[in-house]
Amino acid sequence: HVTHETGSMCYIEEINKAEYCDRSRYPCAQGKRYYGRGPLQLTWNYNYQEAGKANGFDGVANPDIVARDPVLAWRTALWFWMTNVRAVLPQGFGATIRAI
């Protein structure tokens, strides 16, 4: 599951550095992109916002910190797993891929 969605955890930053900004849920900082960063490739502005709240950083204003700080990278990955993926594990591979 993780291997499939993260390229075997070989990349700290997503190759496709798209904007990933959903302004209907949370604001986006000017000039920032919310592409995948960290072991689980945290993506989208709303995930950076919530990960920041849970881990004590401003994820919307400073998404790059997830790629630069290895401790924070793993903290956000664990937060994402526990918040979004763990509950769907019993539903199988497809559900976990969609969650990640």
From TrEMBL:
<keyword id="KW-1015">Disulfide bond</keyword>
<dbReference type="GO" id="GO:0006952">
    <property type="term" value="P:defense response"/>
</dbReference>
<dbReference type="InterPro" id="IPR023346">
    <property type="entry name" value="Lysozyme-like_dom_sf"/>
</dbReference>
<dbReference type="GO" id="GO:0008061">
    <property type="term" value="F:chitin binding"/>
</dbReference>
<dbReference type="GO" id="GO:0006032">
    <property type="term" value="P:chitin catabolic process"/>
</dbReference>
<dbReference type="GO" id="GO:0016998">
    <property type="term" value="P:cell wall macromolecule catabolic process"/>
</dbReference>
<protein>
    <submittedName>
        <fullName>Chitinase IV</fullName>
    </submittedName>
</protein>
<keyword id="KW-0611">Plant defense</keyword>
<feature type="domain" description="Glycoside hydrolase family 19 catalytic">
    <location>
        <begin position="7"/>
        <end position="84"/>
    </location>
</feature>
<dbReference type="GO" id="GO:0004568">
    <property type="term" value="F:chitinase activity"/>
</dbReference>
<dbReference type="InterPro" id="IPR000726">
    <property type="entry name" value="Glyco_hydro_19_cat"/>
</dbReference>
<keyword id="KW-0147">Chitin-binding</keyword>
<dbReference type="Pfam" id="PF00182">
    <property type="entry name" value="Glyco_hydro_19"/>
</dbReference>
<comment type="similarity">
    <text>Belongs to the glycosyl hydrolase 19 family. Chitinase class I subfamily.</text>
</comment>
